[in-house]
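Whiteboard transcription, Tuesday session. T.W. wrote the C-alpha coordinates on the left side:
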Protein backbone atom coordinates (compact mmCIF):
# COMPACT_ATOMS: atom_id res chain seq x y z
CA UNK A 1 0.00 0.00 0.00
CA UNK A 2 1.58 3.28 -1.01
CA UNK A 3 1.76 6.20 1.41
CA UNK A 4 -0.90 8.22 -0.41
CA UNK A 5 -3.48 5.43 -0.32
CA UNK A 6 -2.64 4.67 3.32
CA UNK A 7 -3.25 8.29 4.28
CA UNK A 8 -6.50 8.39 2.30
CA UNK A 9 -7.82 5.24 4.01
CA UNK A 10 -6.77 6.46 7.46
CA UNK A 11 -8.65 9.69 6.81
CA UNK A 12 -11.80 7.74 5.90
CA UNK A 13 -11.43 5.60 9.03
CA UNK A 14 -11.18 8.80 11.05
CA UNK A 15 -14.31 10.20 9.38
CA UNK A 16 -16.17 6.94 9.97
CA UNK A 17 -15.27 7.22 13.68
CA UNK A 18 -16.51 10.82 13.70
CA UNK A 19 -19.84 9.76 12.19
CA UNK A 20 -20.18 6.97 14.77
CA UNK A 21 -19.51 9.21 17.75
CA UNK A 22 -21.55 12.17 16.51
CA UNK A 23 -24.52 9.95 15.63
CA UNK A 24 -24.50 8.39 19.10
CA UNK A 25 -24.19 11.86 20.64
CA UNK A 26 -27.05 13.30 18.56
CA UNK A 27 -29.37 10.32 18.89
CA UNK A 28 -28.58 9.69 22.54
CA UNK A 29 -27.33 6.12 22.18
CA UNK A 30 -25.89 3.55 19.81
CA UNK A 31 -23.46 0.64 19.43
CA UNK A 32 -20.32 2.77 19.62
CA UNK A 33 -17.83 0.17 20.88
CA UNK A 34 -18.53 -2.50 18.22
CA UNK A 35 -18.57 0.08 15.39
CA UNK A 36 -15.36 1.84 16.44
CA UNK A 37 -13.72 -1.58 16.68
CA UNK A 38 -14.15 -2.23 12.93
CA UNK A 39 -13.79 1.31 11.48
CA UNK A 40 -10.32 0.66 10.02
CA UNK A 41 -11.46 -2.60 8.40
CA UNK A 42 -14.55 -0.89 6.96
CA UNK A 43 -12.51 2.01 5.55
CA UNK A 44 -9.96 -0.32 3.94
CA UNK A 45 -12.65 -2.50 2.36
CA UNK A 46 -14.68 0.36 0.90
CA UNK A 47 -11.90 2.81 0.03
CA UNK A 48 -9.07 0.55 -1.12
CA UNK A 49 -10.08 -3.04 -1.73
CA UNK A 50 -13.59 -3.81 -2.92
CA UNK A 51 -14.74 -3.59 -6.50
CA UNK A 52 -17.69 -1.39 -5.60
CA UNK A 53 -19.09 1.69 -7.35
CA UNK A 54 -21.31 3.66 -4.94
CA UNK A 55 -23.20 5.04 -7.96
CA UNK A 56 -24.04 1.54 -9.20
CA UNK A 57 -24.84 -0.59 -6.15
CA UNK A 58 -27.05 -2.96 -8.16
CA UNK A 59 -24.16 -4.01 -10.40
CA UNK A 60 -24.32 -7.84 -10.36
CA UNK A 61 -20.56 -8.04 -10.96
CA UNK A 62 -19.53 -6.02 -7.91
CA UNK A 63 -17.96 -7.49 -4.78
CA UNK A 64 -20.40 -8.33 -1.99
CA UNK A 65 -20.14 -7.31 1.66
CA UNK A 66 -22.10 -8.76 4.54
CA UNK A 67 -22.01 -7.10 7.93
CA UNK A 68 -22.88 -10.26 9.80
CA UNK A 69 -22.58 -8.51 13.16
CA UNK A 70 -25.29 -6.05 12.15
CA UNK A 71 -25.10 -4.08 15.39
CA UNK A 72 -21.83 -2.59 14.02
CA UNK A 73 -23.94 -0.74 11.41
CA UNK A 74 -22.86 2.75 12.46
CA UNK A 75 -19.47 1.92 10.89
CA UNK A 76 -21.25 0.88 7.68
CA UNK A 77 -23.44 4.00 7.68
CA UNK A 78 -20.31 6.09 8.30
CA UNK A 79 -18.68 4.55 5.22
CA UNK A 80 -21.89 5.07 3.20
CA UNK A 81 -21.95 8.73 4.23
CA UNK A 82 -18.34 9.14 3.10
CA UNK A 83 -19.17 7.39 -0.18
CA UNK A 84 -22.17 9.67 -0.82
CA UNK A 85 -24.65 6.76 -0.69
CA UNK A 86 -26.51 8.54 2.10
CA UNK A 87 -26.10 12.11 3.23
CA UNK A 88 -25.83 13.65 6.66
CA UNK A 89 -29.57 14.36 6.83
CA UNK A 90 -30.24 10.61 6.51
CA UNK A 91 -27.66 9.75 9.15
CA UNK A 92 -29.33 12.28 11.44
CA UNK A 93 -32.47 10.10 11.41
CA UNK A 94 -30.53 7.12 12.81
CA UNK A 95 -32.79 4.60 14.54
CA UNK A 96 -35.86 6.84 14.41
CA UNK A 97 -39.27 5.75 13.13
CA UNK A 98 -39.30 5.33 9.33
CA UNK A 99 -35.54 5.86 8.97
CA UNK A 100 -33.39 4.34 6.22
CA UNK A 101 -30.68 3.76 8.82
CA UNK A 102 -32.14 1.69 11.65
CA UNK A 103 -30.19 0.08 14.51
CA UNK A 104 -29.35 -2.88 12.24
CA UNK A 105 -28.84 -2.76 8.44
CA UNK A 106 -31.98 -3.11 6.34
CA UNK A 107 -31.44 -4.25 2.72
CA UNK A 108 -34.86 -2.90 1.75
CA UNK A 109 -33.80 0.64 2.65
CA UNK A 110 -30.40 0.94 0.93
CA UNK A 111 -29.42 -0.86 -2.31
CA UNK A 112 -25.79 -1.19 -1.25
CA UNK A 113 -26.81 -3.48 1.62
CA UNK A 114 -26.83 -7.05 0.32
CA UNK A 115 -28.78 -8.66 3.18
CA UNK A 116 -30.46 -7.43 6.32
CA UNK A 117 -28.52 -8.54 9.38
CA UNK A 118 -28.67 -8.14 13.13
CA UNK A 119 -29.62 -11.59 14.27
CA UNK A 120 -26.09 -12.89 14.75
CA UNK A 121 -24.75 -15.95 12.94
CA UNK A 122 -26.27 -15.48 9.49
CA UNK A 123 -23.61 -13.60 7.52
CA UNK A 124 -21.35 -16.57 6.83
CA UNK A 125 -24.16 -18.91 5.67
CA UNK A 126 -25.42 -16.13 3.35
CA UNK A 127 -21.86 -15.48 2.21
CA UNK A 128 -21.47 -19.16 1.34
CA UNK A 129 -24.52 -18.90 -0.89
CA UNK A 130 -23.17 -15.83 -2.68
CA UNK A 131 -19.72 -17.36 -3.11
CA UNK A 132 -21.05 -20.70 -4.35
CA UNK A 133 -23.43 -18.86 -6.70
CA UNK A 134 -20.51 -16.84 -8.10
CA UNK A 135 -18.57 -20.05 -8.78
CA UNK A 136 -21.52 -21.71 -10.46
CA UNK A 137 -22.18 -18.65 -12.65
CA UNK A 138 -18.43 -18.21 -13.27
CA UNK A 139 -18.53 -14.66 -11.89
CA UNK A 140 -15.28 -13.15 -10.63
CA UNK A 141 -16.64 -11.17 -7.67
CA UNK A 142 -15.54 -11.81 -4.09
CA UNK A 143 -17.73 -12.04 -1.01
CA UNK A 144 -16.52 -10.46 2.23
CA UNK A 145 -18.18 -11.25 5.56
CA UNK A 146 -17.38 -9.26 8.71
CA UNK A 147 -18.15 -11.09 11.95
CA UNK A 148 -17.69 -10.54 15.66
CA UNK A 149 -15.90 -12.94 17.97
CA UNK A 150 -18.79 -13.20 20.44
CA UNK A 151 -20.94 -13.98 17.42
CA UNK A 152 -19.04 -17.25 17.15
CA UNK A 153 -21.26 -18.68 19.87
CA UNK A 154 -23.77 -19.20 17.04
CA UNK A 155 -23.78 -22.76 15.68
CA UNK A 156 -24.87 -21.66 12.19
CA UNK A 157 -21.40 -20.15 11.67
CA UNK A 158 -19.73 -23.50 12.19
CA UNK A 159 -22.06 -25.27 9.77
CA UNK A 160 -21.20 -22.61 7.19
CA UNK A 161 -17.48 -22.90 7.94
CA UNK A 162 -17.62 -26.64 7.18
CA UNK A 163 -19.64 -26.04 4.02
CA UNK A 164 -17.30 -23.33 2.69
CA UNK A 165 -14.27 -25.59 3.09
CA UNK A 166 -16.07 -28.60 1.56
CA UNK A 167 -17.04 -26.56 -1.50
CA UNK A 168 -13.60 -24.95 -1.84
CA UNK A 169 -15.02 -21.40 -1.66
CA UNK A 170 -11.76 -19.52 -2.19
CA UNK A 171 -13.77 -16.49 -3.36
CA UNK A 172 -15.09 -16.11 0.21
CA UNK A 173 -13.20 -13.95 2.72
CA UNK A 174 -14.30 -13.89 6.34
CA UNK A 175 -12.98 -11.17 8.61
CA UNK A 176 -13.09 -11.65 12.36
CA UNK A 177 -13.27 -8.45 14.43
CA UNK A 178 -11.38 -10.07 17.27
CA UNK A 179 -11.77 -7.54 20.09
CA UNK A 180 -12.05 -10.17 22.83
CA UNK A 181 -15.33 -8.77 24.20
CA UNK A 182 -18.98 -9.29 23.45
CA UNK A 183 -22.19 -7.82 24.87
CA UNK A 184 -21.81 -8.82 28.50
CA UNK A 185 -18.22 -9.82 29.10
CA UNK A 186 -15.09 -11.44 27.77
CA UNK A 187 -15.47 -13.94 24.97
CA UNK A 188 -13.28 -16.56 26.57
CA UNK A 189 -15.61 -16.50 29.58
CA UNK A 190 -18.96 -16.20 27.75
CA UNK A 191 -18.70 -18.44 24.70
CA UNK A 192 -15.33 -18.98 23.06
CA UNK A 193 -12.64 -20.35 25.37
CA UNK A 194 -10.35 -21.58 22.55
CA UNK A 195 -8.84 -19.83 19.55
CA UNK A 196 -11.40 -19.11 16.83
CA UNK A 197 -8.66 -18.99 14.20
CA UNK A 198 -7.37 -22.44 15.18
CA UNK A 199 -10.87 -23.82 14.90
CA UNK A 200 -11.27 -22.44 11.36
CA UNK A 201 -7.90 -23.94 10.44
CA UNK A 202 -9.12 -27.33 11.69
CA UNK A 203 -12.24 -26.86 9.54
CA UNK A 204 -10.03 -26.52 6.44
CA UNK A 205 -9.63 -22.74 6.04
CA UNK A 206 -6.55 -20.62 5.48
CA UNK A 207 -6.15 -18.35 8.49
CA UNK A 208 -4.02 -15.24 8.87
CA UNK A 209 -3.75 -12.93 11.86
CA UNK A 210 -3.23 -9.17 11.58
CA UNK A 211 -3.45 -5.93 13.55
CA UNK A 212 -7.02 -4.82 12.76
CA UNK A 213 -6.18 -1.15 13.25
CA UNK A 214 -3.20 -1.07 10.88
CA UNK A 215 -4.68 -0.24 7.47
CA UNK A 216 -1.51 -1.39 5.74
CA UNK A 217 -1.80 -4.85 7.30
CA UNK A 218 -5.54 -4.99 6.59
CA UNK A 219 -4.95 -4.00 2.97
CA UNK A 220 -2.15 -6.53 2.44
CA UNK A 221 -4.22 -9.34 3.95
CA UNK A 222 -7.36 -8.51 1.95
CA UNK A 223 -5.55 -8.13 -1.35
CA UNK A 224 -3.75 -11.45 -0.94
CA UNK A 225 -6.90 -13.57 -0.75
CA UNK A 226 -7.24 -16.39 -1.30
CA UNK A 227 -4.14 -17.37 0.61
CA UNK A 228 -4.43 -20.79 -0.99
CA UNK A 229 -6.37 -21.74 -4.08
CA UNK A 230 -9.35 -23.92 -3.23
CA UNK A 231 -9.64 -22.73 0.38
CA UNK A 232 -11.73 -19.98 1.98
CA UNK A 233 -9.73 -17.45 3.99
CA UNK A 234 -10.30 -16.13 7.51
CA UNK A 235 -8.54 -12.91 8.49
CA UNK A 236 -8.30 -12.69 12.26
CA UNK A 237 -8.11 -8.94 12.88
CA UNK A 238 -6.91 -8.19 16.40
CA UNK A 239 -8.86 -5.13 17.47
CA UNK A 240 -9.73 -2.99 20.47
CA UNK A 241 -13.38 -2.43 21.23
CA UNK A 242 -14.22 1.34 21.19
CA UNK A 243 -10.89 2.11 19.48
CA UNK A 244 -10.42 5.89 19.19
CA UNK A 245 -12.44 6.78 22.30
CA UNK A 246 -9.67 6.29 24.83
CA UNK A 247 -11.77 6.35 28.01
CA UNK A 248 -13.94 3.55 26.60
CA UNK A 249 -11.36 1.31 24.94
CA UNK A 250 -11.54 -2.37 25.88
CA UNK A 251 -14.38 -1.64 28.33
CA UNK A 252 -17.48 -3.81 27.85
CA UNK A 253 -19.63 -1.04 29.32
CA UNK A 254 -19.38 0.82 26.00
CA UNK A 255 -20.81 -2.00 23.86
CA UNK A 256 -23.93 0.15 23.75
CA UNK A 257 -23.19 3.77 24.58
CA UNK A 258 -25.56 6.28 26.14
CA UNK A 259 -23.30 9.32 26.07
CA UNK A 260 -24.04 12.11 28.45
CA UNK A 261 -23.04 15.59 27.27
CA UNK A 262 -19.67 15.36 29.01
CA UNK A 263 -18.62 12.03 27.48
CA UNK A 264 -19.84 13.04 24.04
CA UNK A 265 -17.82 16.26 24.16
CA UNK A 266 -14.76 14.41 25.40
CA UNK A 267 -14.96 11.84 22.59
CA UNK A 268 -15.43 14.47 19.89
CA UNK A 269 -12.58 16.62 21.28
CA UNK A 270 -10.30 13.59 21.20
CA UNK A 271 -11.21 12.83 17.60
CA UNK A 272 -10.76 16.49 16.63
CA UNK A 273 -7.28 16.43 18.12
CA UNK A 274 -6.41 13.29 16.13
CA UNK A 275 -7.98 14.76 12.97
CA UNK A 276 -5.73 17.84 13.02
CA UNK A 277 -3.23 15.93 10.89
CA UNK A 278 -5.55 16.36 7.90
CA UNK A 279 -6.03 20.08 8.30
CA UNK A 280 -4.13 22.21 5.80
C1 LIG B 1 -28.95 -14.36 17.52
C2 LIG B 1 -28.61 -13.20 18.39
N1 LIG B 1 -28.41 -13.40 19.71
C3 LIG B 1 -28.10 -12.35 20.52
C4 LIG B 1 -27.98 -11.09 20.00
C5 LIG B 1 -27.68 -9.93 20.93
N2 LIG B 1 -26.33 -9.40 20.73
C6 LIG B 1 -26.12 -8.27 20.05
S1 LIG B 1 -24.49 -7.86 19.94
C7 LIG B 1 -24.05 -9.22 20.84
C8 LIG B 1 -22.61 -9.50 21.16
C9 LIG B 1 -21.77 -9.58 19.93
O1 LIG B 1 -20.42 -9.66 20.28
P1 LIG B 1 -19.33 -9.70 19.17
O2 LIG B 1 -19.72 -10.62 18.10
O3 LIG B 1 -18.04 -10.01 19.85
O4 LIG B 1 -19.32 -8.23 18.55
P2 LIG B 1 -18.71 -6.89 19.20
O5 LIG B 1 -19.84 -6.22 19.88
O6 LIG B 1 -17.61 -7.23 20.12
O7 LIG B 1 -18.22 -6.09 18.07
C10 LIG B 1 -25.16 -9.98 21.21
C11 LIG B 1 -25.11 -11.20 22.00
C12 LIG B 1 -28.20 -10.93 18.62
N3 LIG B 1 -28.10 -9.74 18.02
N4 LIG B 1 -28.49 -11.99 17.84
MG1 LIG C 1 -16.34 -8.90 20.11
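and on the right, the sequence the group agreed on:
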Amino acid sequence: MDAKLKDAVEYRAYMIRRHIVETCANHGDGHAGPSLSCADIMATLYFAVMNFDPKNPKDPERDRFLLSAGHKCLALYGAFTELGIIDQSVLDTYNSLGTRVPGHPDAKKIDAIDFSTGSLGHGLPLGCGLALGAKMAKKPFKTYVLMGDGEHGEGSIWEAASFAAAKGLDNLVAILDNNGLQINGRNDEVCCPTSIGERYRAFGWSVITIDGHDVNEIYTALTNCPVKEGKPTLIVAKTIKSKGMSFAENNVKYHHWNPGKEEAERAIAELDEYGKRWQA
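Someone added at the bottom: The chain has a mean pLDDT of 97.
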